[in-house]
Write the structure tokens for this entry.
Amino acid sequence: MKYVLGIDLGTSGTKTVLFDREGHACASATVEYPMYQPHNGWAEQDPLDWYNAAVSTIRTVLEKSGVAREDVVSLGISGQMHGLVMLDEKGQVLRRAIIWCDQRTAQECDEIHATVGKARLIEITANPALTGFTLSKLLWVRNHEPELYARCAHILLPKDYVRYMLTGDFATEVSDASGMQMLDVPKRRWSDELLDTLHIDKSILAKVYESPEVTGHISDSAAKLTGLSPATLVVGGAGDNAAAAVGTGVVTDGKAFTTIGTSGVVFAHTDKLAIDPKGRVHTFCCAVPGAWHVMGVTQAAGLSLKWFRDNFCAAERESASAMGLDAYELLNQEVAQSPIGANKLIYAPYLMGERTPHLDADCRGMFFGLSAMHTRRDLLRAVMEGVTYSLADCLGVLNEMGVQPAEMLACGGGGRSPIWRQMLADVFGCPVATTVNTEGPALGVAILAGVGAGLYPSVQEACAAMIHQNAAQAPIPENQPKYAKVYSLYKKLYPANQALYKELAEI
């Protein structure tokens, strides 16, 4: 029996899962690590923490599974995107990595737009300059830490640093590289024009592969630390959302997934390049060679419900604890007792500003229509519905671009809620399903590893063999016009308050 490893390098921890050829998880292990915030809005991590976590979790899953190291033929790594890891000419880390959620680079984003031109930047990289992306972080170091920048010989993304430590190879792949904002996304290669315009030496960038391609194998030194064989192959892997797409089978036209985690994502596969000239959604190369994905983001999706639970649902949390239940199960029961439209109450989920479709860091959340008749269950339902409408906004932009999925997979914590999945189905107007295996990104990169090792001829055929889907929830026809009427009003809230958000930010 041959096995594949999937390593999911997240912000809070790294999870490694060993899978057989049918996609069954044989063993898993997770190690957490800290994030450092030396200043307000900054976010950094120590790259060695990621590597040590990978080594520890690989050893643990091999020991727990009892699988011989020679039978683990390949591994893939999924990673938190956009982080900046800087190495000197000896491969030593120069500073803590600046990670995806760091917000220090607003001036550098302005610098990029002024130097390159916003329209041209979107044509090349398919996205406007954003504080989260790697390019603005690199320019920040050049502007603020020039001596350190001068010593930089290599820059890597988080997962690619772990790859380097496991293999000795400087390599990346197209899905994660798309989020660096130095890749020509239509051509799937580094943009010489962009690098020359911004005076960035191309030699510091890693070689770019397609996601299922083999980039190297485990080094002798890493084999001793991890317990893997030096013959174990390492493939390109993928950024976290691209890996999640493979892990849910979203690898052909017409398929999409919605994640309701802390943030929310609507992610659709497309074989035809589609770029939004307004920059409201991300277009990246996806993990399927020769294809792309389009992704809209809601900043505070599951965060909205968690915020409400933590601040206003102490009774439910205490009851759930006494009953041995997840508090969200009781919240779902409460939501079911409020009607569609939450008795004329609408929630705008802008707790952290918004990304799609408004690109507004200043907008803030609100309950609109609050009355003395409303109860906690109405507010809970309004929160779920408001997040659903925000995700529908994301899907609407995708539809404008000609990306119109016929099937939706639901992922993340919110995706486990049957009532939330039904809301998605009714508002999106398409069936919403879940996968049997919930490993997501880890399974996705394990599938890519299987393709790279020759276990399957293509990503699509590997997904067909390794992914199993639960029955979908179809839209309920009588619910759809009820939601449509509320959604129509929801869409008017942001433009009606846009100027007020700016005033509020200046108080």
